[in-house]
Amino acid sequence: MATEVTRTAGNRPGFSQVVTLAWLVGLLQAAEAFSFTASSSVGALRNVAVSSAPFQRKWRRRRSLNRGSGGVSSLKAIGVTSSVIESVAKGILNLALANPRQATVECTVNSSAMNLVRGNLEQAKVDGLNWVTPMGMTLRTIALTLNEMNIKPSEVFRGKILFKCPAEGEALIELDAQDFGNFLVHPLLTTADLPSGKFDFRREGTALDVERGRATFTGSWQGQPVVMEACQPDRFGKIHARVAQRGRLTDLGIRTLSEEMTHFFNTVVLDLDGTAVRFRDMYHGYNSRGEPSLRVTVSVVVHRLPKPENMKF
What we know:
elongated, 7-stranded antiparallel sheet, 5-stranded antiparallel sheet, signal, 34% strand
């Protein structure tokens, strides 16, 4: 076509032919430019997508932390301090008592900052004075120590202390004669199921003899009133129970009852609404007012703290 134009034009193409040729060249150049621009744009978009990938991953991770149940726990756990745990535990115990205004409750938590974040408490202590439970158990003093507790940090901000596994420790409890009587007739301990028959504890007749190291208590067994004594443990740490007044009991009855009550006191485990308690030791002394007192050491295994709205002891 270009040859024909040249021949007819006598080597001098006309204006329309020049415009047409220029238009075609421009169109080809524009198409080539558009192709280059489009490919460059796609490459640029890919580069932007690649360069923004780390940011997107971080954003997705932050959103998952904020949206997921574990994320809230992790973020809140950072703010868990020993004072927060102490306040929550103190509040729960105060609500669980029948006389919160007259009683004293103090809680102390010892742990490093890193362990607190994980919910690992190296040691926790509870000290109390003049406790009365809704079901009538009374204590002059209590000093409880728990070691190596593992709790759920996120629940602390909801006013709860939940244990991931049971926490073990011991408690020193101080009782006066009235407290001792209240303890024996408490619904958790009102009756001792012995092989020879039930022993029903009574509130009347309880007394503490510091000089002789005896705690006197009364009850009924096989239809007969009985007066017994709980004696301080021997060198093997065993609490002894013996019949204090013979009454109408036979020699065999005295021996049988003494042996079975001794076994009972050394093996009984009480469930104080999620806390298992077992006798370990006891000794007699005088309290701060100079009154006879019975100091009992018990081993404890805490599965959960008592529920204030539904106390079972």
